[in-house]
Amino acid sequence: MGFRFRKSINIIPGVRINLSNGAPSLSVGPRGASLSFGKRGTYANLGLPGTGLSYRTRIDRTVRERQNSRTQSNPGLREALEQEVERLMTAITAITNIHEFSPSPVDGNTWASLESHYLQLHQRTFDRPVPVRPSKPEYSPLPSAPDERYGRGFLGDGSKPMRLALNDRMRTSDSGNWKWRTLSAKTHCLNNGMRNNV
Prior knowledge:
Distance between the termini: 145 Å
Largest sheet: 6 strands, antiparallel
Number of strands: 6
Strand content: 15-25%
Shape: elongated
Low-confidence stretches: 172-180, 194-198
Order of helices and strands: EEEEEEHHHHHH
Structural class: alpha+beta
C-alpha cells in the first residue's frame, strides 16, 4: 500500500481546490452536496456531514453514454448524415471548379450568329398543313304547320270555348246554375273539338 495525500483549500465560500497524489480538482457547493471538476471527469458528491455516509457518481460519463446509446439506437442516422455530407461536398466542389467545366466563350456563338439564326427561324414558312373546316351538319326538317282538321289537339281551337266557360263561371253565382253552365261549357268544348277533328 502506498501513501495518499489529500488537501482541500477554500478559495471562497463554497469553492475549494482539492490537492492529491493525482491531478488537482475543483469542488463547488456546500458540504454534503457538491460538484467536482477534474482531469478524471465531473462527479456529483452527496453526503450527510458527521455520519460518514456519502454517495459519488460520475456525470459526464452518463451524458456521453446517453449520447452514444441515442446514436446507436438509430443505425441509419450515420449513413444518412454521410450521404448528406457527400452531396454537399460534391456541390461545393462543382461550384469551386465551375471555371474548368464551363465552355470557352471564344469557341461559342457570337451575337451576329445568334441574330441570323433567330432571324431565319422567324422568316421561314410553316410546314404545317392548313386546317380543314368541317362540314356543317344537316338539320332535320321542321314539322308541318297544323291545319283546320289536323294538329290542333283533342279540343281543337279551344281558346274561344274556354273563354266562354270562364265567363259563364264568373257571371253565375247560384250553385245549381254554376254546375249546369260548367257542364254545358265542357259539352260545348268537346263537341267543337270533335267537329274539328272529323
